[in-house]
Design the sequence.
């Protein structure tokens, strides 16, 4: 399945729209990562634990969106957007991927 942030796919024409599809992931940040990030905040540097958690959540949100589009019969998801939000006391991360599920044909 083609997943793209653009509104068209080169060499293809959209011939069917199935609507907006979403993939959502809410994940907790564990205590040790919070502690490590707090130390990094004081001394500087990147937080590898948070970065890994963010990459995992983003990958899962995109996969969930792709799965839902496939269940609709779509060949692609166009116009993809990814949003990030911190929930609660800053210990929960929400990642949402959304786009338009479509079918394509050769142009």
Sequence:
């Amino acid at each position: 399945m083609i997943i793209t942030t653009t509104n068209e796919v080169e060499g293809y024409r959209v011939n069917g729209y199935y609507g907006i599809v979403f993939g959502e992931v809410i994940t907790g940040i564990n205590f040790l990562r919070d502690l490590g990030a707090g130390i990094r905040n004081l001394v500087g540097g990147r937080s590898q634990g948070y970065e890994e958690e963010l990459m995992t959540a983003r990958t899962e949100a995109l996969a969930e969106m792709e799965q839902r589009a496939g269940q609709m019969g779509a060949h692609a998801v166009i116009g993809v957007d990814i949003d990030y939000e911190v929930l609660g006391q800053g210990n929960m991360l929400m990642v949402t991927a959304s786009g338009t599920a479509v079918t394509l044909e050769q142009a």
In short: The two ends are 17 Å apart (CA to CA). The first strand starts at residue 2 and ends at 3. The chain has a mean pLDDT of 86. Helices lie at 31-43, 48-72.
